[in-house]
Amino acid sequence: MSNKLPQTWDLEVFYKGGSGSAEFGNELQGIERDISLLAGGLGAAMAAAELVEAAALLQSILLRLRQSEAFVSCLLAQNMKDVAAIGLNDKVKTLAAKFIGATTRFDNALRAIDDTSWEERLKEKSLAEVAFSLTERRELARRKLAPELEELAADLAIDGYHGWGDFYNVIVSGAKFKTVDGEGKEAVLSAGQMHNRLSDGDRAARTEAFAEWERVWGEQAELCAETLNRIAGFRLKLYDKRGWSSVLQEPLHMNRMSDKTLQAMWTAIEESKPVLVRYLERKAKLLGVDKLDWHDVEAPIGSATRTISYDEAAELIVDQFRTFSPALADFSRQAFQDGWIEAEDRAGKRPGGFCTAFPKSGQTRIFMTYSGTASNVSTLAHELGHAYHQHIMNDLPALSQEYAMNVAETASTFAELIVSDCALKTATQEEEKLGLLEDKIQRSVAFFMNIHARFLFETRFYELRRAGLVSAEELGKLMESAQREAYCDMLGEAHPHFWASKLHFYLTDVPFYNFPYTFGYLFSAGIYARALQEGEAFRERYDALLRDTGRMNVEQLAEKHLGVNVEEVDFWREAVGLTALDVEQFMAMTEASSH
What are the angstrom distances between the C-alpha of 410 and each of 51, 94, 249, 335, 512? Predict the structure, then answer.
């Protein structure tokens, strides 16, 4: 690869002119026209030919709508103050609500077809290809409100439910973090830039950054609390009207997994935590503190950490991917070279990282703020895993590309594992090896403890919210309590305003944006173990598993491609057991320096 890889993405290839694109305006008009066409052609029931035609139109709209949502999300992420993009976001959300209204009628028409006729219609080739998705929609329709009420709820959600989610972005864009450089010059950073400083190798710098991080989010807490309460209130009211008693019903359905699978996973994790407690105790000793503060947990050991250039990171990732799959390596090389990644470290960007698909064009785009840390390299590998997953599915029907978040996280974490494991095996210096090993263990801490804290917080918050509004002060106490429990009381200073700083709690398209990460991490660990055992022979099976993620539930997926039952604890115990091996190696390597 060249020494000057682009660090800003190319969005012009999709719609020329950015947020002022006339081409994009025409796209939205076309989508709106076709949504009206779809809705107008749906009666109480559909004849066989009508179903084929409606399903084809629905999928055509879906591809273009997903592409439009991706385009707007990229515009907003690269510049949170792009006023025109904010307006486009509202238009796209309005179209999405209209589409939900049309698909609600479509699903209701599916519900009206009797079982015998249904089985017969699914023999039609174009419908057989998306039979899983259509059947899933038909069954869900039976558990929802009447279609006109669901359509009304979707319309009201634009300025209500989703409006509150968008308002959180306004809060983040207004958050300003002050810092002082080595020469005493004061600078103002965005949330994305400041977040990178929380894992600084220098503990004094890290402590100072964390104090500022907590201060600013403390100032925003009242606005964040109001926003979070309204989002949760809308969900609870809608669930109540549908007769859904559990707040987990929707996220479990969206992730195509059973509650039994979720509970089996958490049981195995709870059993494994004593191993991570040993690691946290040892890390505290190495850092010279009694207990790790929140900002110490993900910090590197020692004050000297190597900065990895973006081009160097790209070369490293592509080389490591090649050890598993030349196809994955070649795809990633293209993403780096063709401007598919927005990585530039500059003000005005939103915090965090993501990968979004442009399915109409058969491409993806990756967003992050790269500052040269080992964590940044992991994020790049993670997002490229997402991108490859979409790449593998580009030729499938639109409905079969709609895979859930938990299996999406499988591909991304699998990519991370390839990079971290290969780097660890090829490291020649002891200090480098220890740093890589610790970075790997930190991911286990994140998925078993940090994500668990988020799950505990959100579950308990919803129970309190049923009884009324929950204050910013109560949210802080709830968050700290969840963190101390999830980390087995191994934290010194916790992060009480984490609930305010984390975008995931405010996303309105995906409720409970937490446990799917842990599922993906552990599921990918199981897949990775198979890949190591089977070598090159596993490549095709891996791609086949990814292609099936939009047309199977996770229990079926695991049974077909891995031959395991994920509703039983044994599978998860085996997966979490891999972390114990890393911790044992870490303990052995740090034994002498801990005394």
Answer: 33, 31, 21, 20, 17
Exposure on the CB side of residue 288, measured as CA atoms within 13 A:
5
Helices (H) and strands (E) in the chain, counts: 25, 5
Taking residue 378's Cβ as centre, other Cβ atoms within 10 Å add up to 21
CATH number, domain containing residue 59: 1.20.140.70
In a domain, 64, yes or no: yes
In angstroms, the CA 558 to CA 566 distance is: 7
Name the token pair of 18. 């950015």
Q: What is the DSSP letter of 303?
A: S
Would 177 be classed as within a structural domain?
A: no
Look up the pTM and report it: 0.85
Quickly state the pLDDT bin for 304 (edges 50, 70, 90): very low
Q: How many CB atoms lie within 10 A of CB 73?
A: 18
Q: Which of 137, 140, 143, 149 is nearest to 243 (CA)?
A: 143
Residue 33 located in a structural domain = yes
345, 193 in Cβ contact below 8 A?
yes
Supply the DSSP symbol for 179.
E
Higher pLDDT, 453 or 435: 453
Say if residues 335 and 384 touch (Cβ distance below 8 Å): yes
Residue 290 structure tokens: 């009694």
Structure tokens given for 329: 């390596």
Single-letter residue type at 1: M
What share of the chain in percent tops pLDDT 90?
Answer: 76
pLDDT digits (tens, 9 = 90+) for 511-535: 999 999 999 999 998 888 888 888 8
Q: How far apart are CA 331 and CA 436, in angstroms?
A: 25
* E-strand stretches of 475-547: none
What is the rounded CA–CA span in Å between residue 476 and residue 462? 14
360-376 confidence digits (pLDDT tens):
999 999 999 999 887 88
Strand residue runs (E) in 213-367: 341-342, 354-358, 363-367
Instruction: Give the ranges where 394-514 is alpha helix by DSSP (H).
Output: 405-426, 430-445, 451-465, 472-486, 498-501
Q: How many CA atoms lie within 13 A of 227 on its CB side?
A: 26
One-letter amino acid for residue 95 of the chain? L
How many Å apart are CA 62 and CA 400, to the nearest integer?
Answer: 11
Q: Considering the domain boundaries, does residue 27 fall inside one?
A: yes
Q: How far is CA 335 from CA 355, 371, 442, in A?
A: 12, 19, 27
Name the DSSP letter for residue 339.
T
From the number of C-beta atoms within 10 Å of its C-beta (0-12, 13-18, 19+), residue 236 rates as middle
Residue partners of 426: CB distance under 8 A and separation at least 6:
none
Nearest CA to 366 among 378, 380, 349, 346? 380
Which H or E element spans position 86? helix 83-111
Each residue of 548-574: pLDDT tens digit?
Answer: 999 999 999 999 999 999 999 999 998
Contact 506, 165 (CB under 8 A): yes
Locus of tokens 């040269």: 372
Residue span of the structural domain in which 145 resides: 18-159
How many separate domains does the chain show? Answer: 1
Q: Whole-angstrom Cα distance, residue 67 to residue 88?
A: 13
> Are the beta carbons of 267 and 569 closer than 8 angstroms?
yes
Q: CA-CA distance, 337 to 5, in Å (whole number)?
A: 6
CA-based torsion, 511, 512, 514, 515: positive or negative:
negative
Which residues are 341's β-sheet partners?
366
